[in-house]
Design goal:
Largest sheet: 7 strands, mixed
GO molecular function, one term: nucleotide binding
Number of strands: 11
Oligomer: single chain
Number of helices: 11
Low-confidence stretches: none
Strand content: 15-25%
CATH class of the largest domain: Alpha Beta
Strand order of the largest sheet: 1-11-10-9-2-5-6
CATH superfamily of the largest domain: HAD superfamily/HAD-like
Structural class: alpha/beta
Helix content: 40-55%
GO cellular component, one term: cytoplasm
CATH topology of the largest domain: Rossmann fold
Radius of gyration: 19 Å
Protein name: 5'-nucleotidase
Distance between the termini: 16 Å
GO biological process, one term: nucleotide metabolic process
EC number: 3.1.3.5
């Protein structure tokens, strides 16, 4: 049906079920579809030529807006908490308070750096941030077909928007839920706005933004893209959902985590740095035109 689903990177627990969901969504028509996607390591690359690519937080952490002392502290936080985040032997309940701790400490350190709003574009430009191969087709095609794309990220919204703006794909159909910086009148970072979005509380974030989902209630068919088990709740705000097809990028610790991803996502992409499979599905849902 979709040749790309036979790619070597593709794993499915129940291929038959995937076909059924796709057929049901095609029948309903692309004007009933919405896309909800994570950003870091889902729309952006995990690695390039063997080197890790930066997340929104890393772009800032690696920049010259951050003092060396602060960089060391942020690195220590990463070394402490990232292994917990991807530890398949711990439950999400157990990880949750630790993720809040990590994000809160990191944001506090960033605020102390008095980061200037007008320097963010340059920081993104100088970074190694990379969207996945095929990103232009994904963003442009969704825009051409008026399919809403919600990017739901535990990263930093200001940086995220700058990445897609510089890539030329921040189209009007794109909406972003993320952690946004709050700048004082002189343009210095003084805090982060609103409720913290971290990797395991996206469900709460979804439910806080009911207005967005209310507007899209005529689009009960969801294509969800994520790279963490925490991303599976991003669509929990969708009203009267009919079908959801969940595509998960498994980038790291593949063998340990493969089974839990197969149990949770409909399609799992193993160490796949492209958007080839999501693009093929999107083209199929829009009648390939």
């Amino acid at each position: 049906m979709i040749p790309e689903l036979s790619n070597p990177s593709v794993c499915m627990r129940d291929p038959q079920r995937v076909q059924e969901i796709l057929q049901s969504m095609v029948k309903a028509g692309s004007n009933t579809v919405q896309v909800i996607s994570d950003f870091d390591m889902t729309l952006t690359r995990f690695a390039y030529n063997g080197k890790r690519c930066p997340t929104c937080h890393n772009i800032l952490d690696n920049s010259n807006l951050i003092s060396n002392d602060c960089k060391i502290e942020l690195k220590e936080l990463l070394n402490t908490y990232y292994p917990i985040e991807i530890d398949s032997s711990r439950s999400i309940e157990e990880k949750l308070p630790l993720m809040v701790e990590w994000w809160t400490k990191a944001h506090k350190l960033l605020v102390q750096q008095k980061i200037r709003k007008d320097l963010l574009a340059m920081v993104v430009q100088e970074s190694d941030a990379m969207l996945r191969e095929g990103y232009k087709l994904l963003f442009d095609h969704l825009y051409e077909h008026s399919i809403p794309l919600l990017i739901f990220s535990a990263g930093i919204g200001d940086i995220l928007e700058e990445v897609i703006r510089q890539a030329g794909v921040f189209h009007p159909n794109v909406k972003v839920f993320s952690n946004y910086m709050d700048f004082d009148e002189s343009g210095e970072l003084r805090a982060f706005k609103g409720e913290l979005i971290h990797i395991y509380n996206k469900r709460e974030g979804a439910l806080l933004n009911t207005g967005h989902f209310q507007e899209l209630r005529m689009r009960p068919n969801v294509l969800l893209l994520g790279d963490s088990l925490g991303d599976l709740t991003m669509a929990d705000g969708v009203q009267d959902m009919e079908n959801i097809l969940k595509i998960g990028f498994l980038n790291d610790k593949v063998e340990e985590r493969k089974q839990s991803y197969l149990d949770s996502y409909d399609i799992v992409l193993l160490k796949d740095e492209t958007l080839e499979v999501p693009n093929a599905i999107m083209l199929y849902l829009t009648g390939n035109n």
